[in-house]
Design goal:
Chain lengths: 307, 519
């Protein structure tokens, strides 16, 4: 019975570790399916974390904090959209600039809050179900962010595959000139997709500072934005593979913590690197097996209408 | 319903002018398309046809002048507006999405969302009505060029257009597929719709259209009834002078075999090229062998296999008595072979490199220009100047990037680069694709002359008329197989057309069918 409790707790923390990656990667997936490669995910996440934390700390409301995180991520994504979509600047450079800007701003905004703490976002327990052994806490004892991430996954999956809007987004990412010739507003759609990516990244950042580790530290995203980007690429731009990748990362990052706890004499730096290594190697294998499901054909190519 | 001269214009362009920087692409151009007619828009490359079409459908805006639809002035601020008014365009470069299915592609062209299942039914109905054949649930990336064009046409037709604009629709089709397209156009005009048919194939225009507008150098030249004109008189209007024909065949002796291909088999790689099966051919010094066929039947793979971009069994390709199947491109060029691929930008030339540097791409191994790994600028400039002068390559500035050149001039440059290497074997893929008539004639004459000097020339082309005009023998490629080459005098358009469709596998011989042979 005791072992089961530990197992249940470990599994539950896997979900918590995977959630921010899943949210941020889903947003980036939509942006990339529309043809914009936004390397600013890390920056948008950390600004979401900082603004979310500051708002929640100031107002005492976690909901307001999460909303503020979303807004902050969206606002920063507009910087990227302005450069890469409307001024047709190089997307890689614009994305990197966005990340650097985000990291700097977040440090500034977060400076007064170093050393403070928040009460974490509560679990949303469902009476009866949460008490089920092992799976109870994993499936029904998570916070709102975890449920939201799954909802978002379903939304993106159905939205991209089954709706007109999703079709247009895919079309714009596949061939912006063809979409333009058919009269679809390429730049507006790309801007919206980038904004969705920014909102998701901001939300993912808020999850980190409000739920996962409810305090502020200036480098608290710790490269998760980059992992989210890698997840998108190696999942071959398919939402369901994102889920697998995010949870693999979550699982290995929790496991390595426990392995560190056993004191096996493996350098802790190596163990900390393990989730990144495991996720990327697994996804490399997947994407090698899934040849043919290539990147959106216009990904990373600035669109300039000729007139 | 047939057009009468007094019939009201459905879509009218009045005095449209469009400038791009210093270039006046359209200078007060006028055009009137009437209901129920097939109207041809004729002109050489750079005559301003594409610019005019883009203004007609709202992709670009005129600087001055006016568009009228059913007599009233309209402004098409974007393609969606023009489509809502009933103007459908099928571009030469298709606006299709390879990764999406046919239904999804069609759905994207419709103003309102519609369940894909319902749409698939409508597509099938439309396909039946106009004798097109399209499978709604296939991915566009898997379709042939002809099928893709039909997808484009169906997409336009579902929007119920009154004016359908077809931009060089037959340049990618087999003769048979073209006939199918003409029947569709006839059905459309019989329903009272107007079709604007852009082409430089004059025979087709005379067969299909009741009216033709001719542009030259961005200006309106004439509106004529093509049925009352000859191909020569139309060509004169387009070019402004008599069109020179390729110099007639020069009688000369055939020499040693320069290229031998024996049982060449190459596996397909899925995305780019299809597989080759058991290709046999022999080209002797002094002859031009033409390979006809619809795009996507293995020509690209054959070119890659010959140029060394894909290697094969060493004995399967013999260049000038040396087994070359296992050699790379540079080693094959060292055997004095020259290669001109189909894609000019990105394959034959590096778009963002200066022209003079592009000379280096194939001449670096020849000695003279590069010595001991060091580029000799003086020698390079001399060769560059010689190419420009002898092949009449025209461009602005002293040494622009390759992408700044027009298609015809870049092709002359690329051909010149290879010819001046004094090759004994030249392999040319689509020598005159998208090149205007004067430059095309020049290129054909050059190749003819090289052959007369003892070079063996292999020409891969989708333009059947071109091959009939200047090749000595013709073989047809279909689904990765090559028919036995036949002397041009012993075959006909019809026989070759059949083989292109894959109907006749054995050869394109036709006993008494020499009537269709042109000079």
């Amino acid at each position: 019975m005791h072992d089961l409790t530990i197992l249940s707790a470990v599994l539950a923390s896997v979900v918590a570790a995977a959630t921010p990656l899943l949210i941020a990667a889903l947003g980036e997936l939509v942006a990339e399916r529309a043809g914009t490669l936004n390397l600013g995910v890390e920056g948008m996440m950390i600004i979401g974390a900082a603004v979310g934390y500051a708002t929640a700390y100031g107002s005492g409301s976690l909901v307001l904090g999460a909303l503020a995180g979303i807004l902050a991520g969206t606002a920063l994504s507009l910087v990227f959209a302005g450069l890469a979509v409307w001024l047709a600047a190089n997307q890689v450079a614009s994305g990197l600039a966005t990340t650097i800007l985000g990291l700097g701003l977040a440090g500034l905004i977060g400076a007064p809050f170093v050393g403070t703490k928040l009460t974490a976002v509560p679990q949303l327990n469902i009476p009866g179900l949460t008490d089920l052994p092992v799976i109870g806490e994993v499936l029904f004892g998570q916070d709102a962010f975890a449920y939201l991430s799954i909802l978002l996954l379903i939304l993106v999956w159905i939205g991209l595959g089954r709706t007109r809007l999703g079709l247009v987004v895919r079309a714009v990412g596949e061939s912006h000139s063809a979409a333009h010739a058919l009269g679809h507003p390429v730049r507006r759609i790309r801007t919206l997709a980038v904004m969705f990516g920014g909102a998701c990244a901001g939300l993912a950042g808020a999850q980190l500072s409000l739920a996962y580790t409810p305090f502020w530290a200036s480098d608290m995203t710790a490269g998760r934005g980059w992992i989210a980007l890698a997840l998108v690429v190696f999942s071959a731009w398919r939402p369901l593979w994102l889920l697998a990748g995010a949870y693999l990362f979550g699982a290995v990052s929790i496991l390595q913590l426990h392995v560190q706890g056993f004191g096996l004499g493996i350098p802790s730096q190596l163990l900390s690197a393990l989730p990144y290594l495991a996720t990327i190697s697994a996804l490399v294998v997947i994407s090698a097996l899934k040849k043919g499901h290539g990147a959106p054909a216009s990904l990373g190519v600035p669109f300039v209408p000729d007139r | 319903m047939t057009a009468s001269d007094t019939g009201p214009a459905l879509l009218e362009a009045a005095g449209l002018t469009k400038r791009f920087g210093a270039l006046v692409a359209n200078d007060t151009v006028s055009l009137a398309i009437r209901a129920g007619e097939a109207h041809a828009l004729l002109g050489e490359n750079g005559a301003g046809k594409s610019t005019l079409v883009k203004m007609l459908c709202g992709l670009i805006q005129p600087d001055s002048g006016e568009l009228r639809y059913r007599g009233e002035p309209v402004v098409f601020s974007d393609p969606a507006t023009s489509r809502a008014r009933g103007i459908g365009v099928v571009f030469q470069h298709f606006a299709l999405f390879d990764a999406l299915t046919v239904v999804e592609n069609v759905a994207l062209g419709l103003p309102k969302p519609e369940p894909l299942g319902v749409l698939a039914k409508r597509i099938e109905a439309c396909v039946g009505r106009y004798g097109l054949s399209v499978e709604p649930w296939r991915r566009v990336g898997e379709l042939s060029v002809g099928e893709r064009q039909r997808v484009e046409i169906v997409r336009c037709l579902l929007g119920d257009p009154q004016v359908l604009i077809l931009d060089e629709p037959t340049s990618v089709l087999t003769p048979d597929e073209s006939e199918g397209l003409f029947r569709t156009v006839d059905l459309l005009t019989a329903e009272g719709r107007a079709v604007l048919f852009i082409s430089h194939k004059l025979d087709e225009v005379r067969r299909l259209c009741q009216r033709a507008t001719v542009l030259r150098g961005g200006r309106f030249i004439a509106e004529v009834d093509p049925r009352r004109e000859t191909s020569a008189s139309l060509a004169r209007l387009m070019v402004g002078a008599d069109v020179p024909r390729t110099a007639p065949l020069v009688a000369h002796e055939l020499g040693e075999p320069r290229l031998l291909v024996k049982a060449l088999t190459v596996a397909g790689d899925g995305s780019r090229g299809s597989a080759l099966h058991d290709i046999d051919l022999e080209i002797r010094a002094g002859e031009i062998l033409g390979i006809a066929g619809v795009a996507g039947n293995g020509q690209t793979t054959l070119f890659d296999a010959l140029s060394g971009e894909r290697t094969s069994d060493p004995e399967s390709i013999v260049i000038d008595k040396v087994a070359a199947g296992g050699l790379g491109p540079t080693e094959r060029r060292a055997l004095k072979a020259g290669f001109v691929p189909e894609e000019r930008l990105g394959h034959a030339a590096a778009p963002d490199m200066r022209l003079s540097d592009n000379v280096l791409l194939t001449t670096h191994g020849d000695g003279g220009i590069v010595k001991g790994g060091v580029i000799r600028r003086a020698a390079l400039q001399a060769r560059f100047a010689e190419i420009v002068k002898r092949f009449d390559v025209r461009f602005g500035g002293r040494d622009p990037k390759a992408r700044r050149l027009s298609g015809g001039n870049l092709q002359k440059f690329v051909i010149g680069r290879e010819v001046l290497r004094e090759p004994v074997l030249l392999v040319v893929d689509q020598p005159t694709w998208g090149v205007d008539a004067a430059a095309a004639t020049f290129i054909r004459t050059t190749l003819r002359q090289k052959a007369a000097e003892g070079c063996a020339v292999l020409v891969i082309s989708q333009d059947l008329d071109e091959l009939l005009e200047f090749a000595d023998r013709i073989a047809v490629m279909s689904e990765g197989r090559l028919t036995a080459p036949v002397p041009v005098a012993e075959t006909s358009r019809e026989a070759i057309g059949l083989a292109m469709g894959g109907a006749a596998q054995e050869s394109v011989h036709q006993g008494e069918g020499a009537h269709a042979v042109q000079a």
